[in-house]
Amino acid sequence: MAKIFTEADSDGSALTGRTVAVLGYGNQGRSQALNLRDSGIRVVVGNRTDRFRDQAEEDGLASMSLAQAAGEGDVVMVLLPDEVHHEVLPTEVFPHLREGAVVVFAHGYSVYFREVDVPAGRDVCLVAPKMIGPAVRTLYLKGMGFPSLVAVDRDTTGRAWDVTLAVAWGIGSLRAGAWKTTFEEETITDLFGEQVGGSGAIVGLLRSFEALIAAGYDPDVVELELLGSGELVEVIRTQVREGIIESLRNHSPTSHFGQLHRAEELLKQPADSRLERILAELRDGTFAALWRRERAAGYPRMRELEARFLAHPFVASEHRNQERLKDVLEGDGSR
Ligand code: NDP
């Protein structure tokens, strides 16, 4: 069982009198920078000169180029998209790092796949929120936390864990807990969850939709049932709170029985060997190489795939139902 760090393990004092440079002011960058500042830590923001940098200034944070911020930080938090790390860090960040600086990533991707190599003499750490960027801020402001995964890949100073936990404390994560992991485990489980769990949800919805449409049912009624009503949001919320089996008690007895009956039937089918192949392709770097080529080519396959999926009749039904339910969906706070 993973060790879980809480506020009993850090009071943030490892960052007292130190400067944290937050590189990138997007989803995670803005929320984490503001939380650290509100936790009493000196924060500077590194970003190119654009609307993100203007936003940092508007928020009252000192902002500067990536290179300047990298040079100011005792702790340097890399909150730039993973696919640009290998382009930006070796040229704009690494040459400017202080001796003994601690470099903190929010995802293990670029380190695990060896797309970047942090210069010797600097610690390499991970604080990966298991929460989307805006919620990192709103939960902090409510006095609540969010879970994260933490790891240390290189500890040259002997202080890497103290700083890692102080960062997790400063962004508000220790209020909920930080699970100890490794760069490999965080990277692979995160990618597998997205690529199997996330795409599995898309496939399940589209296959169900196609089967019911082929049987002659109205596409908008089917979409409403499968996703559009928003009921699924509540179902998932209760699954998270109560458990995937216990939460079935909130459903009708017919639904409760039907779901268990079908789950058993479907699980009796042989395990899907494609899952093993996907895991292997993640671990051996095949996916990372594909994604790197895709970025270098200007994302042609991503655009093609998005266009193809957007042309699916499910999406047209989805848009009609979203328009009809606009007021309800905007008012329920779930999206
Ligand atoms: P964003 O896409 O929101 O990052 C945008 C920021 O990165 C902007 O400040 C942008 O500034 C800067 N940026 C983008 N491209 C470049 C570039 N080529 N050169 C310099 N700056 C650039 O990223 P996220 O916040 O979503 O992700 C940041 C990290 O957090 C990633 O490692 C991610 O895996 C991790 N993470 C993200 C989560 C999420 O929910 N989003 C959850 C947990 C971890 P500019 O205008 O200059 O381009």
What's the topology here?
Layout: E1 4-5, E2 19-23, H1 27-38, E3 42-46, H2 51-58, E4 62-64, H3 66-72, E5 75-78, H4 85-93, E6 102-105, H5 109-112, E7 123-129, H6 133-141, E8 148-154, H7 160-170, E9 178-180, H8 183-214, H9 219-228, H10 231-242, H11 253-267, H12 273-283, H13 286-296, H14 300-310, H15 313-324, H16 326-331
Helix pairs in contact: 1-6, 8-9, 8-12, 9-15
The structure holds NADPH dihydro-nicotinamide-adenine-dinucleotide phosphate (NDP).
Protein model, in words:
The chain is an alpha/beta fold and 335 residues long. 54% of the residues lie in helices and 12% in strands. The protein has 16 helices and 9 strands. Strands 1-9-8-7-6-5-2-3-4 form a 9-stranded mixed beta sheet, sandwiched between helices. Helix 4 links the parallel strand 5 and strand 6. The radius of gyration is 22 Å and the shape is globular. The two termini are 33 Å apart. Bound molecules: NADPH dihydro-nicotinamide-adenine-dinucleotide phosphate (NDP). NADPH dihydro-nicotinamide-adenine-dinucleotide phosphate (NDP) binds next to helix 1 and strand 7.
